[in-house]
Amino acid sequence: MLNIVLFGPPGAGKGTQSEKLIEQYNLVHISTGDLFRHHLKNETELGVKAKGYMDKGELVPDEVTIGMLEEKVNQHPDAKGFIFDGFPRTAPQAEALDDFLSGKNTKITLMLALGAAEEELVKRLLLRGKDSGRADDSDESIIRNRIKVYNEQTAILADFYSKQGKYEVVNGVGGIDEIFNRLCIAINQLAT
Ligand code: AMP
Question: Which domains does the chain have, with CATH numbers?
């Protein structure tokens, strides 16, 4: 199986690139942000739990997030692999994912980190907020809080995967196809 964690701060382009990668490599895309937004829209119990955190740009508690992620993976028993987008975001989530995948005799193949400078991220998110209707993309202070939460709680996962020899940085600035090419080169190198 090819299991990729697409990593990077909000606005790095994880969603856009995931869409292209799943087509190229025939993978299943799991975005915890998309899953939460789906629950929010349908006003499920989980959506109600997540709303307060999402509105502030804070992380939803680990046990809620991990349970939701595992349920989604279990819905695809025949998958050739997964792109995890926006998950894991904390050390307990990364540990839970490793345990969960090893219980299925598989593991994370590679974490690909998309990088971009903070001002570029804020600019992209404000632009996205204009047509996405996402409340957390329309308010600069919430955007900056999401980047702060990323730096404080999520960025450490680079170490977690580096220690396993599975971490690679990809320049996230440039055209969509240019960045996609860089990601493909990193993935294709695994096979050689
Ligand atoms: P995203 O679309 O990935 O930017 O996620 C939007 C929001 O959903 C985040 O600001 C969090 O409130 C929540 N969220 C998404 N993924 C996670 C996660 N792995 N852990 C905790 N909260 C998450």
Answer: 2-186 (3.40.50.300)
User: Which tens digits make up the pLDDT trace of 57-71?
Assistant: 999 999 999 999 999
> How would you classify the pairing of strands 2-7 and 81-85?
parallel
59 CA to centre of ligand 1 in angstroms: 6
- Please indicate whether residue 144 is annotated as part of the active site: no
Query: Which residues have CB under 6 Å of ligand 1?
Result: 10, 32-33, 36, 53-54, 57-60, 65, 86-87, 89, 93, 136, 146
Using CA atoms, how far residue 74 sits from 21, 83, 110, 125, in Å, is 21, 14, 20, 31
Q: Is 89 a catalytic site residue?
A: yes
